[in-house]
Amino acid sequence: MRLVRAGRRAFTGNADVLADDEHRAQVTDYFADLARPFGLAPVAGLSGHSYGEMAGALVAEVVPATEPVDLLVLAFSIHDVWPGRATATYLSHLCPGTPMSFALCDQGSASPFTGLRVMRDYGVRRALLVVVEQASLPYESTAATPLEHRGVAMLYEDGTGSRVTDVRQYPDVAPEAVPGSALLAVAELSAGHPGVRVVLSDSLAAVWPDRPDHTRAQAGQPTTGVWWHLAEAQEGSVLVGDYDPELRYLCFAVVAAS
Amino acid sequence: MTALDAMSVYTPAFRVPIEDLADPLGLTGMQVRLFRRFHGLDQVRFDPDRSPAELLRAAAEGLAELRGQEHRVRYVIHGRAMPVVVPYPHNPLHDVCRQLGLAHALAFTVTQQSCASGLLAVELAGRLLAGDQDDDALALVLTGEKAFTRHARLLPGTSLFAEGASACLVSANGKRDRMLSFVCAQRGEFDGEFGDREDEFQRQYRPSLAEVINRAVADAGLALDDIRLVLPHNVNVVTWQRLCSLIGFPVQRVLLSNVPDNGHMFCTDAFANYRTARERDLLREGDHYLVATVGAGAGATFSAMVFQH
Amino acid sequence: MTAPDAQLDIALRDRVVQAMTTVLKRLVEREEPITEDMHMADELGVSSSLGLELLLEVEDQLGIQIDVERMRPDELLTVGELATFIAGHSRPW
Q: Which pLDDT does position C5 carry in this prediction?
């Protein structure tokens, strides 16, 4: 499985759909019901973006009609402003090939890595991984939210050749145990990829004092951070690493761009 | 071959007659009568005392086969119809994993295929296990969610959601309840973005469901008549009656009794129906059965899975 | 094509047609006459949920129970076709 094309975008403003009064009312009710059991008050003025719009734009950019996709994974951690929508099913319709599509979530920054793993285990001709995060929460929250609405779409193709995409995931890793596992993972994954460029998330670098030379993903974009850099890669191999301090997932992937 | 090694289903005891849901949901008397007459609904189960995490935990705690085997579980996959159910960054799934001694597993939720997300979770469990070096590895598939908001209480003109949960241990090489095929067809053109296409959707519903069923049966190397039992999603009795006449399958072989007994438990229906089938001794060793579900509510996913018991 | 039942009760069918047209006029808010050859979905705008209401109301008015399980909606498109089905597939309460 090789990365054949990627696209990345920052989005500004709010989802178009929030301009619709009826939609706003429904979504406001949904969020009120969601937050009430946790004692969280709604914030005034619903804002934020929708993954259907963001991912839809990325799909159009990254997948030409001549390259039908078989599998689409939408990975997110923070939710968007159309919480009840089967967005992945909508994307299935937009994406050439009408791929089997689903969303993968509740796994913090590990979800795109799990997405890659599922795509690899499926062994289809073409698979699209879309990683998204938007910056607004419609209820009071002390959670850190992303700085910007961002999305990255990566089109992977199964083909011949020795260079493959590989993934390593370590659940339940305490911060102090990160360096040991990280060193091992990077050694294993870079073995087949001489000259591989390393991209680490801010959260991983923070707990890995002896980290190797690397590009540091921007702080404040916890889900898309490392993938944003991967999307720039024109050729060669890139090794991305991320650590989710709340859920304690340490993840690495080496991706061969073609 | 993906296999269901063990299963536990939690159905709350508390039930509400559908007439009592009319006022809270703003349903007319006629709409309630339609639900009763055509959809076969009678009472809907709820668990007012349990949170999303506690629902999942109730099912997992009933899974005796999990005890002592926690170390073998490498994946915990929650199949969920409602994409967002708690404020960010709360994470009931991981809370439950820690409580169950499963913090070492990769746990995640798959969603946005509506009520078909549960079957998807089983399929993905099988794929991950097949790609895993460890032959002894297991996956735990969890379903269960709360009818916490209108969108999760009422599917207009179609069904009423109920609360329940299931926990299923999946292996890549089990000896029984082996998955022979899985077919999934998505119709994102019925998403809300494209306007109200409800009537068009109703017209396409049965043919689309028939298509995935026929394909799943063919992919399993079988004919429709080889299917001993169908475990449907519990949304609607008349749809299944009409579907059976469309594909020429005896409706007596579709397990529909949980529609009046439970209501529509999101992704849990298939598992609840499986438990009922076992309780009634409806499956003999070697029997083939089919699980079919339609995830609907703007944007539809039709899925079918064939198993051998 | 659903086989027509032998000895269709013509009197019942007439009552069914009458009940249907009365109910339909109210459901789709129509003042003009409704004839048997009219296509319910395309000409009268009867949606699937209105269609179910129509059946329930006809049952109420005539004191019958329709064998809805046997219905093949794709074959019952006009007022007349549905009336024939109802007359041939129902029993008194």
A: 52
Does ipTM exceed 0.85? yes
Q: What percentage of residues in chain B have a pLDDT greater than 70?
A: 100
Q: Spell out the domains of chain A, with CATH numbers in brackets.
A: 2-157 (3.40.47.10), 166-257 (3.40.47.10)
C53 at the B interface (CB within 8 A)?
yes
Inter-chain CB proximity C49 and B34 less than 8 Å: yes
Confidence of residue C8 (pLDDT cuts 50, 70, 90): confident
Beta bridge partners of A224: none
DSSP alpha helices (H): ranges in chain A? 21-35, 51-62, 87-94, 111-122, 178-190, 202-206, 225-230
- Which of C26, C59, C66, C68 should one mutate to test binding to chain B, selecting the residue with the greatest count of B CBs within 10 A? C68
* Spatial separation of the C-alpha atoms in residues B242 and B135, rounded to whole Å: 43
pLDDT band at C6 (very low <50, low <70, confident <90, very high): low
C70 to B157: CB separation less than 8 angstroms, yes or no:
no
* Chain B residues whose beta carbon lies within 8 Å of the beta carbon of residue C75: none
- Residue B43's domain comprises 3-171
Please judge whether B199 and C72 are an interchain contact, meaning their C-beta atoms are less than 8 angstroms apart: no
Q: How far is CA A159 from CA A96, A123, A127, A258, in A?
A: 19, 10, 12, 10
Contact (CB<8Å) B112/A110: no
For residue B175, give the DSSP letter.
Answer: S
